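Sorry to interrupt, but I need a hand with the structure work. I would like you to pick a protein and set down its sequence and fold. Please put the record directly below this note.
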Amino acid sequence: FKTPLTANVAESYKLVIDDMNAGIEGLPEESASGRVNKYVAYAFRCRAALQAYAYTKDASYLDMCIESANAVINSGKYTLSSNYGEMFQKAGAYDNEIILGYYRLEKNTNCGSFSEMISCVPNVNNDEIANSNASPLFKDAGGRSFEGWASYFPTQDMVDQYLVIDEVDGKAKPWNETAQYKNSVKEEDPSALQVGDFVKVELTGRVVPDEDDMGSTEKGKKIVRYGRVTDDSRINEIMYNNRDKRFYGTIVYDSCTWLSGELVTLCCQGNLWAGVRKDQADSWYTTASGYYWRKNVYEVSPRFYVSNNTDYHFVLARLGEMYMNRAEAYLLKGEIDKAVADLNVTRTQHGGLPPSMAVTEEEAWRDYIRERRVEMAYEGNLYWSYLRWGKYGGYANEGEKANGVIQALNRPVHKIQITKDRKRYFIGQIVRNRAWNRNFTTKRYLMPIPQSAIDRRAASGITDEQNPGW
């Protein structure tokens, strides 16, 4: 309790790195799954060194990050998974890419044991689907549908990071820049939309768009894109076909299968769309964005239900991150060709995309940030990456000065709505609970020291300084 706090961030990271170094020196080469070995210590040192550089600008941490990544990559003990999505499911729990995992057995674990799983699955039954004139109904599983407490959702902004292969030139592009989109979709003025243009459900009173979707917030127009298919194509196929392979292992989207092979529809009046239950525009425990997380959500038999038992695992460290960390360190050292080579390892092997052809520093940062976002999605990693990128500034943070406001954390997040015939869509701000109103302030580069701890220590004559801004 009376131990002095570290004097600064640099001292804190030195203590962290000292622990990692002790692990590298003292841990064995081999260990059972879920147990640590020296390569686990290298992996965590690789991660910590990159973060330490962002906060201290001590260039030796970049060399340490690269050295640590090299130790893991060159050990020959780990290989990139040939099935990215399976690595986060029961079938891939012991994939050779995983450096360290946390494992639970079904005898003491159920679907409700971890928020990473229960908070991603909807709470819906067939009566609710029928009452909203939605379809299709779910297959019977002893009277149960699904019982989760869905509140974590991938946003349209996240989904936009997954590139699509252009059917004409074979290049990887954002979905709305492909030939198949440009040739089949006419973009229209979002202000032309009226309440209820997409759907009106008499029994539940659900309308799309609804009043909350219209107009503007302090951060801009609520509906930012509106399009109409002009031929016999379907917008969900244009958007979701030929995508980065990681998309299919990470995201639940309209007209895919999920949860024991059920056909999931997320269009208006789909069986798991935002309005399938009564009382709210994005109904209780169904998607607020038009998507669900597939990654880290086990397929549980016969149904995903809060009390049903299941094995489970988290991936705590894996080989893909080592390539990502090394790429970032090379970018910071100005070694663009090496950085692009590293980001292309996961981009081509996990994503199935053509390689990045980035040449300039700006191009390399653009492709690297996109690659890290899709490679490390929903692994508890990206927030800390954004903190680093904000610390760097420049191309890493949309041209902002170093230590400035992180733009990606300071703008609204978005949802998608698709008509039942898949001929129209709009993208708009998520307005539920003012989710659009995201404001990153620079004090958030550090967490606050709990005031209660400062007060208790002050009572013993110890004076501590709170972190700036808190």
Q: What stands out?
A: The two ends are 22 Å apart (CA to CA). The chain has three domains: 9-87+315-404, 109-310+428-434, 441-470.
